[in-house]
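Predict the 3D structure for this chain.
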Amino acid sequence: MTHKEKWLTFAPAGLLTIGLGACLIQWASDKKRNRASTTEWVSAGTAALVVFNAGLSLFGRGVAEGVLYDLKEKPREMDFYNVPRM
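Done. Predicted structure below.
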């Protein structure tokens, strides 16, 4: 896979996973608000935070791949050394 393909895969997957994790955090806090057992809402909250942090990791990887794409693969329109001299 090229850096561009990785960037276009990881960044959207990270955003979706972050959104899912945020929804799960709300779900876990709703369990606590509705007086579910401590074990139930703590385990739900832990799982939600794992999903949320996985999303942050995926998105961060996507950003890194985007930077690598810009540095290595993207054709340069105007490079300092390729400027015609008069």
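The mean pLDDT is 91.
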